[in-house]
Amino acid sequence: MGLIESEGIVLRSYNLAEADKIVVCLTRTAGVVRTVARGARRLKSRFGAGLEPFTIIALTYYEKEGRELVSLRQAEIIRSFFDLAGSAENVAALAYMSELVMEFAPPHEPNEKLFRMVRAVVEALANTPGDLSALVRYFEVWTLKLAGFLPDMISCMGCAKKLGEASPIYLNAEFKARCPQCSNRLGKEFSEAGHKQLRSAQRLSPSEFAKTARAVSDGTMNELADLSQGLIRRVLERQPRSHMSLL
């Protein structure tokens, strides 16, 4: 407890009272924290543009035992992605990604891999905005994986045989994978192309995955979207509020 310094990514902010904001950050060392930024809405706020969504900041905050909200003391910009706000699709996608982080990452629980994944995806989006849809798929897959909700697609739940990328997989209502023989080809078919893209998402960096996705059919990427978004709905028991069907 006390004064804490960390690198963070601004996820979302809300107005509080007349001049303050509640700012939700994903920090490298403490996971998701909700901070109160006093005076952040004033014209001459010391925070400046450092509290814009998905700005990477060096933040200093004060934490008291037993309190969920912490007091934000300082936020220095490390990297701003202000240019992404020029596209409505980018803004909607970033809102969706921030919602997924807040839903799947428990507060005050450090997750270095999640922090690095979020940062890498946003940096990839800033470099190649045309890859938006593929990067959202990547984000969904890794959010599920890091939270422990991505099903095992390596072996058949029936016979334990290894499931390669050369044959389709059949998913039951709980998204558990079975080979064609054990499933009798019943259930939701997940094609070999979709399976390959799923494995690529778990193996490659965001930028590398986006490059491979350019050569993949829309049908295959839609199949991956059906899987990741179906799993998200199942875990949350609802559609994410920020969901965009075009993604």
Brief write-up:
The protein has 247 residues and is of the alpha+beta class.
3D structure, described in words:
The N and C termini lie far apart (41 Å). This protein folds into two domains: 2-80, Nucleic acid-binding proteins (OB fold (Dihydrolipoamide Acetyltransferase, E2P)), CATH 2.40.50.140; 94-236, de novo design (two linked rop proteins) (Up-down Bundle), CATH 1.20.1440. With 247 residues, it is an alpha+beta fold. The protein is built from seven helices and eight strands; from the N terminus they run E-E-E-E-E-H-H-H-E-E-H-E-H-H-H. Helices cover 37% and strands 23% of the residues. The longest helix has 19 residues, at 218-236. It has helices spanning 88-104, 112-127, 132-147, 180-183, 192-203, 206-213, 218-236; strands spanning 2-16, 20-27, 31-37, 56-63, 69-79, 169-171, 177-178, 188-190. It has a five-stranded mixed beta barrel. It has a three-stranded antiparallel β-sheet with strand order 7-6-8. Helix 3 (132-147) packs across helix 6 (206-213), helix 3 (132-147) packs parallel to helix 7 (218-236) and helix 5 (192-203) runs antiparallel to helix 6.
The amount of beta strand, in percent, is 15-25%
Just name the CATH architecture of the largest domain: Up-down Bundle
Overall structural domain count: 2
Outline type:
elongated
CATH classification class of the largest domain: Mainly Alpha
Distance between the termini: 41 Å
Biggest beta sheet summary? 5 strands, mixed, barrel
Mean pLDDT: 93
Could you estimate the helical fraction of the residues in percent? 25-40%
Q: Give the uncertain stretches in residue-range form.
A: none
Numbering strands along the chain, what is their spatial order in the largest sheet? 1-2-3-5-4
